[in-house]
Amino acid sequence: MAHVILQSVSKVYTRQSRQFLFRYVWELLRGQRRQRSRDAFYALRNISFELRDGDTLGIVGHNGAGKSTLLNLVAGLTAPEEGLVDVEGRLSALLELGSGFHPDLTGVENLYMNAALCGMTRQEAERAFDRIVEFSELEEFIHEPLRTYSAGMVMRLAFSIAVQVEPEILLIDEIFAVGDKDFQKKCSDRILEMRDRGTILICVSHAADTLRELCKRGLWIESGEVVMQGEADEVFDAYLSRKEAGRPAS
Amino acid sequence: MQYNNYSFLLRNLVLRDFKIRYRNMSLGVFWSLLNPLVMMGVLTFIFTQIFRPPGVEDFYLKVLSGIVVFNFFSLAWLSATVSIYSNAGLVKKVPMPRELLPISTVLSNGLHFLIQIGLLVVLVLHAGYGVNRYWLLLPVIFALEGVFVCGLSLVTSALDVYFRDMRYVVESANTVLFWLVPIFYTFTMIPQEFRSVYQYNPIAAVVLALQAVVFEARMPPAPLLIKLPLVSALFLAVGFGIFRRLKRNFADFL
């Protein structure tokens, strides 16, 4: 059973002076947790939620609210200074367009590379190969180097891999910004299908409307703190009305 | 995150490095052969025509054997040291075991090393040296060198994230090591009082073992065969330990 559990999680950044670095590395080596210093800056403060099979969470907030940091924590890319992050299950993360792609490698080579990065074995990747290519609609170009691809094509390939590796947890960061309408439709259909089969989905966007269809639960954060948490529609409505009122949320 | 199987990922990372390195170059993988040959040519010219050390038989072959071993070590170490930084995109945005980055870089350099070993074997056989049973030890010794570089690189690559000076430290260390590995001189030329220093230099040990086996058809000295696995295993264990602690917040510092 896959789950994502965050308990009172905080992420603290500190101004990185040279002196600081030496002390920081020394503390890491000794396995100590960092003392909070005067320069500490909370990127996230006291975030908690719990997601189990089939749960879908949409995270909204303005630029710099801490949305991406939150996804990074769930993906295990960075560690919290306070609280507990407990993630169990095969995770696939679409956090940045084409991360893990190399321009000089062909579509096929990049496909296998990324399938491996998503945790697939060779057999699984070979079995999924046709499905991924078909979903991406890139049959004609799949043997060309990636540098000849347009941004939309790269996105299609990345997305096709991420949704075809059968993740138990799928993280998406503002990914719907690219690609044509038809492909976006196809992707959200596929995500809904995965959700119905039990995939946990966490989506991040500053545009709440793109999340409505996909997410049942909503989380609104600003300046690293929770403004509102609960039913997706209520949270998104509140977020949008605050946004339209032109007041930057605190 | 569950990775039931790292081997497919590791394989992909190794092949990616290998493919990218020489892709879009007209000579491609031949650079793996040309580089050591050029080095061998220059060193042989200088030390047989300009400086004339007491006659060493087949000087060029001994130079090449030293260069091949040293090149693998220095290139693998340097490129693995910067591997976390140069794969910042992966480290920041893709959840994966970060240990695989320096290790795959070392292994991909290992592929070039194998090509160069092939070149050495061809030249050695051509010069009339025979194959002997101690050759069976060579793959083990080379593997131990790889293990040693992996251990070293795990430490330096993790530190390089926090202190970008690390790559210059490694570069300087490589320059010093080049002179401290018996590439263009033989072990017997080293004054007695300095020989013990060489005993603690794993790369010198690998070169000496290779030369003993190939050119003298004898078993490498026993202390060397005991120390090399111990040192390699120790470095690997320490490397993994340090890396595991330092990798926690890599993404915040790239």
Helix content of chain B: over 70%
Radius of gyration over C-alpha positions of chain B, nearest whole angstrom: 19 Å
Please provide the ordered H/E string of secondary-structure elements of chain A: EHEEHEEHHHEHEHEEH
Task: Give the CA-based shape of chain A.
Answer: globular
SS content category of chain B? mainly alpha
Mean pLDDT of chain A: 85
Estimate percent helicity of chain A.
25-40%
Shape of chain B: globular
User: Would you list the SSEs of chain B in sequence order as H and E?
Assistant: HHHHHHHHHHHH
Question: What is the total domain count of chain A?
Answer: 1
Helix segment count of chain A?
Answer: 8
How many structural domains does the protein architecture of chain B include?
1
Q: Care to give the gist of this entry?
A:
The complex is a heterodimer of chains A (250) and B (254). Chain A has 250 residues and is an alpha/beta fold.
Task: Explain how this protein is built.
The complex is a heterodimer of chains A (250) and B (254). Chain A is α/β, with parallel strands linked by helices. Chain A has eight helices and nine strands. Chain A has one domain: Rossmann fold, CATH 3.40.50. Helix content of chain A is 38%, strand content 25%. Chain A has a six-stranded mixed β-sheet, with helices on both faces. Chain A has a three-stranded antiparallel β-sheet with strand order 2-1-4, covered by helices on one side. In chain A, helix 6 links the parallel strand 6 and strand 7. Chain B has 254 residues and is mainly alpha-helical. Chain B has one domain. Chain B is 74% helix and 0% strand. Chain B contains twelve helices and no strands. Chains A and B meet through helix 1 and helix 3 of A and helix 1, helix 5, helix 11 and helix 12 of B.
Fold blueprint:
The complex is a heterodimer of chains A (250) and B (254).
Chain A: E1 3-13, H1 18-30, E2 41-52, E3 56-60, H2 67-75, E4 82-88, E5 91-94, H3 107-117, H4 122-136, H5 151-164, E6 169-173, H6 181-196, E7 200-204, H7 209-212, E8 217-222, E9 225-231, H8 232-244
Parallel strand pairs in A: 3-7, 3-8, 5-6, 6-7
Antiparallel strand pairs in A: 1-2, 1-4, 8-9
Chain B: H1 7-22, H2 31-50, H3 59-81, H4 83-86, H5 88-93, H6 100-126, H7 137-162, H8 166-180, H9 192-199, H10 202-216, H11 222-246, H12 250-253
Helix pairs in contact in B: 1-6, 2-3, 3-6, 3-7, 3-8, 3-10, 6-7, 7-10, 7-11, 10-11
